[in-house]
Amino acid sequence: MKGLRSSLGWKLLISYLVVLAVGIVTLTLAAESVIPTAFNRHMAGMQMMMGGQMGMTMADDLFTNFRTAFTEALLWAAGLAAASAIIVSIFVARRVVTPVRHMMRASRHIADGHYAERVPETSNDELGQLARSFNQMATALEQTETMRRELIGNVAHELRTPLTNIKGYMEGLIDGVLPPEPQTYQLIYREADRLQRLVSDLQELSRVEAGMIELHLSRVSVATLIEQTAARLRPQFEEKGVSLHLEPPPQLPPVPADEDRIGQVLLNLVGNALQYTPAGGAVTITAVLHNTEIHILVQDSGIGITAEHVPHLFDRFYRVDKSRSRAGGGSGIGLTIARHLVEAHGGQIWAASPGPEQGSTFGFSLPTG
Ligand code: ADP
């Protein structure tokens, strides 16, 4: 009974009945105060017209009959109005309460982990809009949940490979299959190093994805940034036999940016270009002014990328050639971090390639003001 009384349908009915009762009481009071005076005035007029032929009893009789008829009409009207209040409240309650109940049930299901739950979007009114917003929220939750599950799966997968390798080398050492010499230790060291890099990449990823990075903006010269990055990586380029060219940008305005973070993005792109360009190839870094943005481009003559992979390069853990990338210590997180860092600066990052073995170009934009 308590549940029924607190239900929306019941409250609606009561509110209708209250309005109805107020209407009837007001009408009765108004009638009580107005009708006798009006009736007497009318009777007096009629008596004058009929020359005083109408006796007092007849007038009283008429008045009583009129009053009974009025009360009867009022009762009928009240009954009919109450019946319509019940019907209307049932109808309105159905229209209002049913979608609300659907949402209640769906939210409970979602809370229990059934993220595919949706509610019907039947109308265009506020309730329909609420249902649409509810479904949008459910979709966002479902996507987050899928991403979370994928992330755990990916992290487990990424951790498994180096751990299995370390375990294998150790078993080899214990069983005497592998010789206890520096080369074996080197192999183990490399796997542990990869694990360490993966963990710090993951830490960085979680920070950038949560928007927890603080940008220390200053006016950065893009030309200097390119020179510094090139200077840091030049020894590795020379070691591999890949040439590195800087196309000196024309007079570019400084950009408001976090120098370390943008340096990290550029280092990542140039590092990738080196990694995916075989000996004898070339990498070029350029910058151009595009309206209110500076575009920084890293072009290589390396292995290139098939068109179908290009849109996914900035997704977490995405690697075109898993074995090749992993052999180079890559976990497929670098570009995801780079994307977040560039977007935090209000810029965009992109990749393009004419196809396999035809090199690629990675670029990002930074607003100048
Ligand atoms: P990784 O650490 O594996 O390099 P990234 O996020 O930096 O991860 O890159 C993701 C993937 O994009 C790489 O695994 C590689 O397949 C592809 N990629 C990145 N840069 C290049 C490039 N310059 N040429 C060809 N492929 C590239």
Commentary on this structure:
It is built from 9 helices and 7 strands, in the order H-H-H-H-H-E-H-E-E-H-E-E-H-H-E-E. By secondary structure, the chain is of the alpha+beta class. The strands form 2 sheets. The protein has a 5-stranded mixed sheet. A two-stranded antiparallel ribbon has the order 1-3. A hairpin with a 7-residue loop joins strand 6 and strand 7 (360-367). Helix 2 (8-49) runs antiparallel to helix 3, helix 4 (126-175) packs antiparallel against helix 5 and helix 5 runs parallel beside helix 9. The mean pLDDT is 89. The structure holds adenosine-5'-diphosphate. Residues 272-273, 276, 300, 302-303, 305, 313, 318-321, 325, 330-335, 360 line the site of adenosine-5'-diphosphate.
Annotation keywords:
single chain; about 375 residues; alpha+beta; Helix Hairpins; Heat Shock Protein 90; 3 domains; 5-stranded mixed beta sheet; two-stranded antiparallel ribbon; 7 strands; elongated; binds adenosine-5'-diphosphate
Strand order of the largest sheet: 2-4-5-7-6
Kindly state the number of beta strands.
7
CATH architecture grouping of the largest domain: 2-Layer Sandwich
The structural domain count equals: 3
Shape descriptor reads elongated
Supply the CATH class of the largest domain: Alpha Beta
Ligand roster: adenosine-5'-diphosphate
Q: How many helices in DSSP terms?
A: 9
CATH topology of the largest domain: Heat Shock Protein 90
Question: End-to-end distance, in Å?
Answer: 65 Å
The percent range for strand residues is 5-15%
Series of H and E elements: HHHHHEHEEHEEHHEE
Stretches with pLDDT under 50, minimum 5 residues: none
Name the structural class.
alpha+beta
Mean pLDDT: 89
